[in-house]
Amino acid sequence: MRALFFLHFLFSLFLHNISDARDTITSTQSLKDGDTIISSGGNFEMGFFSIPAAGSINRYVGIWYKQIPGQTVIWIANRETALTNTTSAVLKIVEPGGPLVLIDGKNEVIWSANASRSAQNPIAQLLDSGNLVVRDNREDENFLWQSFDYPTDTYLPGMKLGWNFLTQHEVYITSWKNENDPASGPFTHHFDPTGYPQLVTKNGSKELFIAGPWNGLRWSGTPEMDAYSPHYKYHVSISPREVYTRYDLINNPVLTRVVMTSSGELQVYIWVNETQSWVSALKVPRNSCDSYAICGANGVCNITASPVCGCFEKFTSRKTRVGLDYWSDGCHRRKPLKCKNGTDGFKKYSGIKWPDTKHSWFNTTMNLTECEHKCLKNCSLIISCTYHSCTAYSNLDIRNGGSGCLLWFNDLIDIRVLYQNGQDIYIRLDSSEIPAEPIRVESHASSKGKKVKIVLGCLLLLIVMIVLGLCLGLNIFKKSKKKMMKLKEWLELPLFDLSTISRATNNFSENNKLGEGGFGVVYKGVLDDKQEVAVKRLSKTSTQGLLEFKNEVICIAKLQHRNLVKLLGCCIQGEEKLLVYEYLANKSLDTFIFDEAKSKLIDWPERFSIINGIARGLMYLHQDSRLRVIHRDLKASNVLLDDNMNPKISDFGLARSVGGDATEANASRIMGTHGYISPEYAAKGVFSIKSDTFSFGVLSLEIVSGQRNRGFFHPDHSLNLIGHAWKLYKENRAWELIDVHLASSCDLSQVKRCIHVGLLCAQQRPEDRPTMFSVVTMLSNDNTLPEAKEPGFFIEQSVNKGNYSSSTQKTSSRNECTITDLHPR
Question: Whose CB among 133, 339, 573, 813 lies 3.0–4.6 Å from 711's, allowing a Cys bridge?
Answer without folding.
Answer: 813
